Amino acid sequence: MSKTSLRINSDRLHGRLAELAAIGATPAGGVTRLALSDEDKTARHLLIAWLTELDLAPRYDDLGNIWAVRHGAADLDPVLMGSHLDSVVQGGRYDGALGVLAALEVLATLQEADIETTRPIGLVNWTNEEGVRFEPAMTSAGAVAGEFTADWVLDRRDRDGIRFGDELQRLGFAGSASDRPHPGRYLELHIEQGPVLEALGRPVGVVDGIVGITWSEVVIEGQPDHAGPSPMHLRRDALMAAAQLMLEIEQIAVRRDPTAVATVGRIAVEANVINTIPGRVTFSVDFRHQSPDILEAQIEQLHEAAANVGVHRSVDTDINRFWTSAPTAFDPGVLAAIKAATDLLDIPAHHQWSGAGHDAKYIADICPSGMIFVRSQGGLSHCEAEYSTPEDIEAGANVLLQAALALAESPDV
Amino acid sequence: MSKTSLRINSDRLHGRLAELAAIGATPAGGVTRLALSDEDKTARHLLIAWLTELDLAPRYDDLGNIWAVRHGAADLDPVLMGSHLDSVVQGGRYDGALGVLAALEVLATLQEADIETTRPIGLVNWTNEEGVRFEPAMTSAGAVAGEFTADWVLDRRDRDGIRFGDELQRLGFAGSASDRPHPGRYLELHIEQGPVLEALGRPVGVVDGIVGITWSEVVIEGQPDHAGPSPMHLRRDALMAAAQLMLEIEQIAVRRDPTAVATVGRIAVEANVINTIPGRVTFSVDFRHQSPDILEAQIEQLHEAAANVGVHRSVDTDINRFWTSAPTAFDPGVLAAIKAATDLLDIPAHHQWSGAGHDAKYIADICPSGMIFVRSQGGLSHCEAEYSTPEDIEAGANVLLQAALALAESPDV
Question: B277 and A263: CB-CB below 8 Å?
């Protein structure tokens, strides 16, 4: 059988997805499988059992990242495929899990057909991608990529004060730094977690990169007062000022281009009492864009808009930009291999940027990397209703298979 | 000495204001004297001592309302002057207290000059005006006016479950229903608690009535989603919809007339997380106006605005109007007496409506009533910085004196 006619086994993949989804299953059909929880431990042992069944020798490193590699003809760093088995609280069955099990399915398909590749092909499960239990997100791919030190990651604590490193020991997955994976190329299949592919009627997306994100906190100080005796023209209402500024923030994204997004997700109002004019409002601003220059321009526009609202409404405004994650453009060669796979499979793919972070963001710092998105029904994720159809999942997994095969044969991507 | 040349003693009034402000005094110059607290008890005993010094026999009724009346030539219900001694937490020295002590000062002035009036003139301190410890506000003037039954008021409980009636017993102020005051006319002097008099440069206001208030809760249901992967045009952001609707609500008041006010004081956002598009926002709307028809029109405009935002942004909106207090217009004869007093005293007064509730709102149901406002520095109240100048207080108290004298001589107001 030629490599290009090779296809994954959709039934086997879905059987394993169902088996994995039973671990930490929630009544409404989702999963709660927090990083380094007992559920995560059970899921890890299941993955190891599956890898062992395939005659692949699983290993884990000092961050608990589990990985395994098929032999390749050349002594080169592998094409690693992967994602994460941990979930958010009451999350879905696909976020992360699909990327790991699609990678496993690719390895099973290659083993079954006894395919020889030049570069080895392997799988990785990154510990604590979600960052829900141990902040921040993507700690362990980050540590492998040099973004964080292992000591720092192992010292993270959850809300009960429990240490990441201690939980890793408890689970039996505290390995050695010498056992870290060394990807030569990295591919991550993930559900889109957004509505774009559905809106366009495309099953699969070629992810050109991960957008930059910058977070700010805006504080508006007005004058608290009784709702009754203050005429409208004498008020310095911090919430009305915030409302005006929020609509300006929305426009900063809308006016820019169709990929720019801006979100006000969190707001706190003082006194937050029905008959008191709000004196102080604090809210968050999340700007995302693939261009770092445009992110900077958006921050500048935020300052201008806040200054205008301040003058117009006699309120004081303060903006604290407290976190920025630079955009990551994926490797053109890896993206070309993914696109070629969609062409080969006759799958109408769409080029897009990821609005959310993924392990691939950090791994892209150490090797040529790329991502494949699978359409999400309703664009929903991080909820129990998260869903992708078996057909879309099969299409995505076949793209992963063919892209991995191509990358294994083109060492100079 | 003719009645019209009679003036209150500003030093005596300020001495008593200072003495009263020491009871429940806060470090920053305010007071915390919650209804039926130990501080309220001390203040009540001080008032009783002052009334007794004036040879007036204080009484209290089943709600703990304390009152005393000077003899009049005619056997008519008295002109009662009053307000309340209770305060909010970390409130000011003038809210309520000034109305009681200005009334006391009027009685002291009349006693000292041995003035005979046709109608008796008296003083009342209404229990629990603020409603901070025992909700709702103005319980005891309300009970006297027939708005609430005494049993219902006595059964109110504070946050610790302590019963109003039990506290009244504990304080020694649980009197008899047969001892309730029977005002023939009612006058209430109060600080403005708003910025209008200051903005106009007037020391005193003639309060034409108390505005109607209607409270609604608006719920906006959008679609919660990740801040990253959702393009702006596919979002159903409940907070951006709320922001747009809030600005419309502001305009509903601004476009109406200079007296209309609208306030969004309280807001709750779900999930209220920095990187999640808000899926659900709940906020309060407080409309106030002296015309009941305009209040209804404003509610109608709120529904229209919400429907427009709903269509424009593909969100569901729901409006629950849960409380309305009808406007109260004060008695024209009483208002004329107040205005005549300001003319007599050559005080530039301003006619205005009160945006906040006062005991006079309920008492107006049982006898001709009116209010006098004294300018508030910065419009501030319900805070320790609350302040009115001695000159403005003196002006207001003299208006109270002359209005009470006039009302005592014109039984058919």
Answer: yes
Q: In sequence order, which residues have a C-beta less than 8 Å from that of residue B374 and are 6 or more positions away?
A: B94, B98, B189, B190, B191, B192, B197, B203, B204, B205, B388, B392, B393, B395, B396
Angle at which helix B390-409 crosses helix B97-112, to 10 degrees, equals 60
Within this chain, domains B3-210+327-409 and B212-325 share the same CATH topology: no
* Contact (CB<8Å) A267/B267: yes
Residues contacting A412, CB < 8 A, separation 6+: none
- The closest alpha carbon to A96, from A62, A58, A129, A63, belongs to A129
pTM of the model: 0.86
- Cα–Cα distance between A196 and B93 in angstroms, integer? 60
Hey, which residues 335-354 in chain B have their CB within 8 Å of chain A?
354
Interface of B with A in 253-282 (CB under 8 A): 253-254, 258-267, 269, 271-278
Alpha helices, DSSP H, located in A276-389: 292-313, 332-344, 359-363
Helices (H), A22-129: 38-53, 97-112
Tell me the C-alpha distance between A267 and A327, whole Å.
Answer: 26
User: Alpha-carbon distance B342 to B61, whole Å?
Assistant: 33
Q: Where are the domains of chain B?
A: 3-210+327-409, 212-325
* Cβ pair A228:B382 closer than 8 A: no
Q: How far apart are the two ends of chain B, measured CA to CA in Å? A: 25
pLDDT band for position B275 (cuts 50, 70, 90): confident
User: Does B286 contact chain A (CB < 8 Å)?
Assistant: yes
The candidate with the shortest Cα–Cα distance to A168, out of A128, A123, A130, is A128
Q: Which residues of A touch B226 (CB under 8 A)?
A: 193-194, 355-356, 381-382
Q: Looking at chain A, which residue has its C-alpha nearest residue B376?
A: A229
Asked if the B3-210+327-409 domain carries CATH number 3.20.20.140, the reply is: no
User: Using CA atoms, how far apart are residues A387 and A407, in angstroms rounded to an integer?
Assistant: 29
Q: How far apart are CA A369 and CA A350, in angstroms?
A: 18
- pLDDT tens sequence across A126-164: 999 999 899 899 999 999 999 999 999 999 999 899 999
The answer to whether the CB of A216 falls within 8 A of the CB of A299 is yes
Token pair for A364: 């892209």
- pLDDT at B40 (0 to 100): 98
Residue at token pair 């001892």: B179
What sign results for the dihedral spanned by CA atoms A28, A31, A37, A43? positive
CB pairs under 8 A between A and B: 198
Q: Which of residues 291-320 of B touch A (CB under 8 A)?
A: none
CATH class for the domain made up of A212-321: alpha beta
Long-range CB contacts (< 8 A, 24+ apart) of B11-14? B12/B105, B12/B108, B13/B101, B13/B102, B13/B105, B13/B393, B13/B394, B13/B397, B14/B390, B14/B393
Q: Which residue of B has its CA nearest to A276?
A: B265
Q: B413 pLDDT exceeds 60?
A: no
Cα separation values, B253 from A351, B219, B257, B294, Å: 48, 20, 7, 10
Q: Give yes or no for residue B109 having a pLDDT over 80.
A: yes
Average pLDDT, chain B: 96
3-state secondary structure of A226: strand
Q: How far apart are CA A249 and CA A288, in angstroms?
A: 12
Q: Is CATH 3.30.70.360 correct for B212-325? A: yes
**DSSP per-residue codes, B342-386:** HHHTT--EEEEEESS--HHHHHTTTS-EEEEEE--GGG--SSTT-
User: What's the average model confidence in pLDDT over A108-137?
Assistant: 96
How far apart CA B196 and CA B357 sit, in angstroms, is: 17
Q: Is the distance from CB of A199 to CB of A377 less than 8 angstroms? A: no
